[in-house]
Design goal:
single chain; alpha+beta; Phosphorylase Kinase, domain 1; Aminoglycoside 3'-phosphotransferase, Chain: A, domain 2; 2 domains; 5-stranded antiparallel beta sheet; two-stranded antiparallel sheet; 12 helices; about 50% helix; disordered N terminus
């Protein structure tokens, strides 16, 4: 991220450590380690007199929303969902505000992040069931009431998406010449053609089909820890919100099993079968969610915007990988829908 170095990360944490230790009763800090794999927030491991902890500096979510979301986790854990509950200060607050920064502290959980294509089919099926049980648990421990109608799912306008692509092409053309930038310009030209050819297949309304409720919002391997073949921690609840269940299933599948420019259709089918063994999501509702996700990917460019705005090559690589998947998906739309419909 532009302007943020290892030194500034350490300076921020070092300034906050004494207050964090007092607020959450951590004791003397013996060692600390910055965890570089986070894409948005900043995270550390602390080893202290009282144990090992994960410290998260909250950078992209309003703190009242973070407090609301963290308050749900103890209830989920009581249902058997592997959701590490945050530490509370003496006042009961789950977030410490220090020098304009917000921090939360959670017990450290040993485990590893495993991409979806690295899981066995049995593990994939179990993962689908874990997501469904999480949705059921959130019904019981919701942070607020559900609206009468699901949130609108805005359908991207083809003309607006085309204009956005042109703007990005111009920005990339004036940026330093890199292999990623050259490949992205070519990909954007191809995307414009793809949008034109498939605009008639976009969703007709902004009303998504199917049941809806509170969902995790980013249920994917970077936010899952596994140990001995099991999910032992579901992390990063910043995006907890009300969505159609089909939307979260569709997105989870894409992030987990859309790797290397293709969908692993066997794993797509197995995950959806595991989910539907717990929550019997109707096939038509799931198909609607898949089409909406496909069109959303067709008309958004967030990875490239992050790549340019944050000067972070990680997001450029993500864009190119997802672009290959979008073309593969578009060419095999019926096969993808059939995999999502599996029982």
């Amino acid at each position: 991220m532009q302007g943020v170095t290892d030194a500034t990360r350490e300076d921020d944490l070092l300034a906050a450590l004494p207050i964090l230790s007092r607020t959450f009763g951590l004791g003397e800090v013996r060692s600390r380690e910055f965890l570089a794999h986070g894409l948005m927030n900043r995270n550390w491991r602390l080893d202290t007199d009282s144990g090992a902890y994960a410290v998260k500096e909250i950078t992209d979510v309003p703190l009242p929303k973070v407090r609301r979301n963290l308050a749900v986790l103890a209830g989920l854990a009581s249902d058997g969902i592997p959701a590490p509950a945050p530490l509370a200060g003496a006042s009961g607050d789950l977030v410490a505000e220090i020098d304009g920064h917000g921090y939360c502290v959670l017990p450290w959980v040993d485990g590893e992040h495993v991409e979806g294509t690295g899981l066995t089919l049995d593990q994939v099926r179990d993962l689908g069931a874990v997501l469904a049980r999480l949705h059921e648990s959130l019904r019981r421990h919701a942070p607020g009431p559900l609206p009468e109608q699901p949130p609108a799912a805005k359908v991207g306008d083809p003309a607006k998406a085309d204009r956005a692509a042109v703007v990005l092409i111009d920005r990339l053309a004036s940026a330093p010449v890199t292999d990623v930038a050259k490949a992205a310009i070519e990909a954007l030209d191809e995307r414009r053609d793809l949008i034109t050819r498939h605009a008639e297949a976009r969703p007709e309304t902004d009303v998504p089909a199917g049941p809806f409720g509170w969902t995790h919002g980013d249920f994917q391997y970077r936010n899952l820890l596994r140990d001995d073949g099991r999910v032992v921690a579901v992390l990063d609840w910043d995006r907890l919100g009300v969505r159609p269940y089909g939307e979260e299933v569709a997105r989870t599948v894409q992030v987990q099993f859309g790797v290397g420019g293709v969908f692993d259709l066997d794993r797509v089918a197995t995950f959806c079968s595991g989910y539907r063994s717990v929550i019997d999501l109707p096939e038509a509702d799931l198909a609607d969610a898949v089409t909406r996700l496909w069109w959303k990917r067709m008309t958004d460019f967030w990875q490239l915007e992050f790549y340019l705005d944050r000067d972070d090559p990680t997001f450029g690589d993500m864009f190119l990988s997802d672009e290959a998947l979008l073309h593969w998906w578009t060419d095999r739309a019926d096969e993808v829908q059939a995999a999502y419909a599996a029982r």
